[in-house]
């Protein structure tokens, strides 16, 4: 009996088992946490992070972006005389930008045109249009074609009879293969300046190119439709060869004729 009693005394109580499990779990958790901390990279943001790389990126965007809403709010607090002073300063930035462009300092000219846009009063829409168009020309020289188109578009919004802005945008559209948009701009130039030889030549050049492209697209589309049709018709023992497309020369539309074929 005493031996049995001694054996039972070696068996831990429920409380002791729970304490032991909890202790092991806590120790393992602590070790695992320490290991993970050692493995994981330090993602803490240095105190000067906002003033390092991000500042450079934001600065670049800020130099290019013109906040016209903010400019409008600011101008509401200015006198007419103050607006004239700002307009004069903007024209000086434009002059300097033009000089930079002539010297092929395109990045510098972009900055100068942007500075002019930041202070030129909104009521001087014609001058603002020139600043945008000139900045677009500088961007085009740096192969920033999409951005250049955006600036030309802004110039046209400010002055919808600005032939030079249409001309620059028309060329850029053609360079990025947006032929329909390019043709529309050339036609607008002809509307504004019927004697513009370059616009007439561009229209003659682009119309057949657009028609050729459309024909290729149509052939590709019909080819894909034919492949899809064969997949659908195959279970019925048919193919698209059983259907003949006939174009109406008057309307350009198509009619479909069914032919069962010989058996």
TrEMBL record:
<dbReference type="InterPro" id="IPR011990">
    <property type="entry name" value="TPR-like_helical_dom_sf"/>
</dbReference>
<dbReference type="Pfam" id="PF13181">
    <property type="entry name" value="TPR_8"/>
</dbReference>
<feature type="repeat" description="TPR">
    <location>
        <begin position="163"/>
        <end position="196"/>
    </location>
</feature>
<feature type="region of interest" description="Disordered">
    <location>
        <begin position="32"/>
        <end position="60"/>
    </location>
</feature>
<dbReference type="InterPro" id="IPR052769">
    <property type="entry name" value="TPR_domain_protein"/>
</dbReference>
<protein>
    <recommendedName>
        <fullName>Tetratricopeptide repeat protein 1</fullName>
    </recommendedName>
</protein>
<keyword id="KW-0802">TPR repeat</keyword>
<dbReference type="InterPro" id="IPR019734">
    <property type="entry name" value="TPR_rpt"/>
</dbReference>
